[in-house]
Design goal:
13 helices, Serine Threonine Protein Phosphatase 5, Tetratricopeptide repeat, mainly alpha, 65% helix
């Protein structure tokens, strides 16, 4: 399952096979791409900020080449501007240029080891590249900053990557900590629902999934499929039928729907 979220890197998983189990990037908030000429800012720091925001905007719409140009201009204006190096790491990650992505994140952290966004994003990069155990320390480092605006995201990412490494007990603790901070966080809820299901704790799994369904208006196929299988084991035919109907109606071609139609529940 992949569900990375990048949270505002600029000026700021659940597991295998599901769209909700990937660590989440701290993603630059989309900014309108400026096409008209703008006055040249007086200070290097201001030029670096504007070029970084433009780079993030182009990154968000998939124009990686233009994003690279803007971010390199930001670094040329102010080589010590951490958000530019952090955002550059995300662009290189998207381009699968891993050496350059790692170098950019590491540069950002050499400039400011307490930057929560750079720590979270570098952790996400490492986890995505299957260095799960190494990644967790960066998520935890992100949490040390008392000014971090979305600490629950780092807890969820730590939980996803810890779960991938096989430590379900610690992963559960991270998800619970995320919910203490953000009780309606959908990624924490669906990860817990999946984790409890795999542990055959159907009551806890059902409770977490029910909370998830209350939060998410359009659950994906993997969440609906979890509901089908869980309610089948719990013996609630009406609930199973409801999940099945939604899965067939909204995702007729999904692998989960094919498994349902073929009676392959596990």
């Amino acid at each position: 399952m992949r569900q990375w979220t990048l949270a505002a890197t600029l000026l700021g998983f659940t597991l295998a096979g599901c769209g909700s189990s990937a660590p989440r990037r701290e993603e630059p908030a989309p900014q309108p791409v400026q096409s008209s000429p703008q006055p040249t800012p007086a200070t290097p720091a201001e030029r670096a900020r504007i070029h970084t925001e433009l780079g993030a905007s182009y990154y968000q719409i998939g124009q990686f080449g233009v994003a690279l140009d803007e971010l390199n201009q930001a670094i040329e204006a102010d080589p010590k501007y951490v958000p530019a190096h952090n955002s550059l790491g995300l662009v290189y990650m998207g381009l699968r240029q891993d050496d350059k992505a790692r170098a950019s994140f590491e540069r950002a952290l050499r400039l400011d080891g307490n930057d929560s966004d750079a720590n979270n994003n570098f952790g996400m990069f490492l986890c995505d590249r299957r260095f799960e155990k190494e990644s967790v320390r960066y998520f935890l480092a992100a949490l040390k900053n008392p000014l971090y605006k979305s600490p629950w995201e780092a807890y969820v990412n730590a939980g996803v990557c810890t779960r991938r490494s096989g430590d379900e007990k610690t992963a559960e603790q991270y998800f619970q900590k995320a919910l203490q901070l953000q009780p309606s966080d959908p990624r924490a809820l669906i990860n817990l629902a999946q984790l409890y299901y795999q542990q055959s704790d159907l009551e806890k799994s059902s409770a977490a999934l029910s909370r998830y369904m209350q939060v998410v208006q359009n659950p994906d196929a993997s969440a609906l499929w979890l509901g089908v299988r869980m309610e089948r084991l719990l013996g609630d035919r009406n609930a199973m039928a409801s999940y099945s109907s939604q899965l067939r109606g909204r995702f007729p071609s999904a692998p989960e729907t094919r498994a349902l139609n073929e009676g392959r529940f596990e």
